[in-house]
Amino acid sequence: MRSSDAVNVQTLTYPDGSQRFLVHYEDFDGISLLADRNALLARYRDHDLKLVSDIFIASVAANPTKTLTSLANAREIAAWGTHQPPGTCLAVISLTPFTEEELEDNGVKSTVEAGCIALTGELYVGAWHSFTYGCDYSHGELACPRITLPGGVYRVTVHRPFRNNEERESLEKTDFLIHLELVDAAYTRAQLDEVPGADGWL
């Protein structure tokens, strides 16, 4: 484990053996995401914005919605709108569902189905700024926390403490309860044409 992960990631293990991962990360742009590390390293292995003349065309940020939905439909990432001003977020990641009591205790007001992600090992937990910089300048290596989970295809459900179109003005940490449900590899869902829960934020 990297020293940064030791600081930003806490693992809770329950008597039944189930685990929850508490991941602290920074969100400056209102879009958070999970990404399969191996997938990004393979996709952006030869991508280096320092070597191209027109960054406005070549950058992954040139068309944010298209970039994120394309990767989401390829099951390489799962992204959602956070409506978060610059500040710290906490992602509570669980492979088991959250109880109604947990959702109520954490002030959940809306739930976003963020698509599916195919994991092959390490999972990045970060936001738009770390994604764009890592893909454009570090060949897919993101400067954000990561955790290791069993491989497989997971359906991603994000529980948020606010409703769609609700402005976020507080600079306090925002918590997201994220359920990763293991599904059959043949599981399909409708293709995304916008970032879930973004409400035009990006």
Characterise this structure.
This protein has 202 residues and is of the alpha+beta class. Helices cover 21% and strands 35% of the residues. The strands form 2 sheets. Strands 1-2-5-10-9-6 form a 6-stranded mixed sheet. A hairpin with a 5-residue loop joins β1 and β2 (19-27). It starts with a helix and ends in a 19-residue tail after the last strand.
Features:
alpha+beta, globular, 6 helices, 202 residues, Substrate Binding Domain Of DNAk, Chain A, domain 1
Tell me briefly what this model is:
The protein is of the alpha+beta class and 202 residues long. The chain is 21% helix and 35% strand.
* CATH architecture designation: Sandwich
Number of helices: 6
pLDDT < 50 runs, ≥5 residues: none
Average pLDDT value?
Answer: 90
Order of helices and strands: HEEEHHHEEHEEHEEE
CATH class: Mainly Beta
- How much helix, percentage-wise, in residues? 10-25%
β-strand amount: 35-45%
Strand order of the largest sheet: 1-2-5-10-9-6
CATH topology: Substrate Binding Domain Of DNAk, Chain A, domain 1
Distance between the termini: 32 Å
Q: For the report, how would you describe the main beta sheet?
A: 6 strands, mixed
Overall 3D shape: globular
Task: Tally the structural domains.
Answer: 1
